[in-house]
Amino acid sequence: MSAAADDLVVAPDVTAPAAAPVLVVAGVNQFYGSSHTLWDASLTIPAGGCVCLMGRNGVGKTTLLKVIMGLLRATSGSVKFLGTELLGTPTERRARLGIGYVPQGREIFSDLTVEENLHVGLAARGGRGTVPEQVYTLFPVLKKMMRRRGGDLSGGQQQQLAIGRALSIDAKMPKLLILDEPTEGIQPNIVHEIGDIIIQLNEAGLSVLTVEQKLPFARRVGRSFCMMDRGRAVAGGKIAELTDEIVRQHLIV
Predict the structure, then answer these.
(1) Which of 102, 198, 201, 216 holds its CA 20 to 30 A away from the CA of 175?
(2) What range defines the domain where residue 34 resides?
């Protein structure tokens, strides 16, 4: 299936009970100086969905995530999370509302211990509470390496730490987890483990939006896809509708 940006809606599985979308991005425009980077970008994340945001390098995927998180300013449009308009609200408020974010490159604190990095996620709860036990259940290596510095971890372990930190913003579970290329630069066995975790979290009810370039990974973990090109959403639908023709037109270099 292919659709124009203005008409694109990534729909929930028709067999699932109807529910209000978790995230609705509509008509978002963004500029870097005089460069127009997002053109009426639109995206819908259904409740309980797992949407893979795809496209070639430089088409605006990371920019869109940063607008959603308030790290970049949109010049027009709307970003609604559970019906609440996010544009104009601080990044930290978005985390408090229940959005966990794992940026590209992970951005863990190299000089802090694993435990201290996880505690950074508690800031969304005003620094109160403890790291959810499920983080250690999902990522046992973090419990084993709790006293190690983040910079001493492998790339795969750092990615697990970054996801654990994002999950720690809520005592139970965030409402939406956003991941920017979670498999980038990670050894294949850890990529598979991270895929297992994303599937497990999604099946437990956590809505997921992930930027992903690896086609097999996207087809394995995603329920829906949204393809971007030149700052616009140009195709989308259920992951089974991600045809070779769409991949050839918008993903293969």
Answers:
(1) 216
(2) 1-93+212-253
Determine the Cα–Cα distance for residues 215 and 247; give it in Å rounded to an integer.
9
Does the CA dihedral 77-80-85-87 come out positive or negative? negative
d(CA 172, CA 132): 7
Q: Provide Rg for the chain, Cα atoms.
A: 17
* Structural domain count of the chain: 1
Residue 14: pLDDT over 60: no
Query: Is residue 23 situated within a structural domain?
Result: yes
pLDDT tens for residues 140-175?
A: 999 999 999 999 998 889 999 999 999 998 877 899
| Domain containing residue 236: CATH number | 3.40.50.300
Q: Residue 57: inside a domain, yes or no? A: yes
Instruction: Kindly state the tokens that stand for 103.
Output: 């940026």
Whether the Cβ atoms of residue 250 and residue 235 lie closer than 8 Å to each other: yes
